[in-house]
Amino acid sequence: MYPYLLPDVFGYNLPMYDIMIMIGLFVMLAYVARRLEKKDGYTRKQTNKLLLFLVLSLGITLLSSYIVDGVFHFIGNFREMTDSGLTFIEIIKESFGSVTFIGGLIGGLAALILFIKYGYKESNKDLRKILNTIITGVVIAHAIGRIGCFLAGCCYGIPTESFLGVNFPHGHSGDVSVYPTQLFESIFLFILFILLNKVKSFKNMEVEVYLIGYGTFRILNELLRGDDRGSIFGFITTQYNTYPSPSQYLSLIMVGLGVYLLLKRKKTNQLKSG
Predict the structure, then answer these.
(1) Does the structure show a pLDDT above 80 at 274?
(2) Domain boundaries in the chain?
(3) Which of 51 and 236 is assigned the larger pLDDT?
(4) Per-residue pLDDT at 123
(5) Cβ neighbours of residue 136 under 8 Å, at least 6 residues apart?
(6) Is pLDDT larger for residue 138 or for residue 227?
(7) What does the pLDDT look like over 25-62, one tens digit per residue?
């Protein structure tokens, strides 16, 4: 599509994927900082401390994303690669190298929760309120980041002859039009971001809405993905992938966790009102 900002600047190409990721993270931090101070009632000092924890957790997010994606590909491709005569080290090198958003989300949120729980001692700490704000920021960052995927030509869909088909000469081998699943996800996430901010019934339930909404969408969008999704406990094999894909399993866990939190919240409210 358009993988680089400029052809060559001082011998270095500027990847649009990296640029969009950085823009997404900047917008997320700006949104979270503003909401923590203007809507959630935190002081500038408290907000800065929470932003520091968020930045630290982003590093763990990247590491977790890399490891989870590599493990899934290693498990799924181990037998095939072994049959091809590759050594164990060569299989590892072939499996690791890309990232997965959901794997990063799990590691990053776990790290953030630990940072806040043990490193944020302020008396007005409200973990649920903080997570509601941060997860909404994650949505807008993810939406912008997926545009980077589209420009880079990664995370593409299965071939299609419909008017939706897009060709990715730099990211997809062959002159084949495929579904722009990156844009499908980006559009969904922008809509979800707006809903989380505007729908009053979603107030204080952003985490639950996100887990159920994005988890459900990702399960469906995976069916259109044409890139290598990895494989673990797959039951259905098509020309392009094996299903359920690792991301579908993780998405199902997200949906289940979201439903559990909703039911727990409902039960708590009933006890309070009773």
Answers:
(1) no
(2) 16-191
(3) 51
(4) 64
(5) 31, 35, 193, 196, 197, 206, 210
(6) 138
(7) 999 999 999 999 999 999 999 999 999 999 999 999 98
Q: What is the mean pLDDT of residues 109-122?
A: 89
> What DSSP assignment string belongs to 84-121?
TT--HHHHHHHH-S---HHHHHHHHHHHHHHHHHHH--
User: What element of type H or E holds 198?
Assistant: helix 181-198
Per-residue pLDDT, 97: 57
CA dihedral defined by 196, 200, 202, 204, rounded to 10 degrees? 100
DSSP code of residue 243: E
User: DSSP 3-state assignment of 126?
Assistant: coil
Q: For residue 135, which phi and psi values (nearest 5 degrees)?
A: -65, -30
Residues recorded for the chain: 274
240, 229 contact by CB (below 8 A): no
What is the dihedral angle through the alpha carbons of 42, 44, 47, 51, rounded to the nearest 10 degrees? 170
Closest CA to 185 of 162, 211, 219, 137: 219
Which distant-in-sequence residues (6+ apart) come within 8 Å of 223 by Cβ? 243
Which string of DSSP letters, residue by residue, matches 169-185?
Answer: TTTSSSS-EE--HHHHH
Looking at residue 214, the DSSP 8-state letter turns out to be H
- At 26 the pLDDT is 97
At 82, the pLDDT band (50, 70, 90 cuts) reads: low
Instruction: Output the six-digit token pair for 29.
Output: 């931090």
Angle between helices 246-273 and 101-119 (to 10 degrees): 40
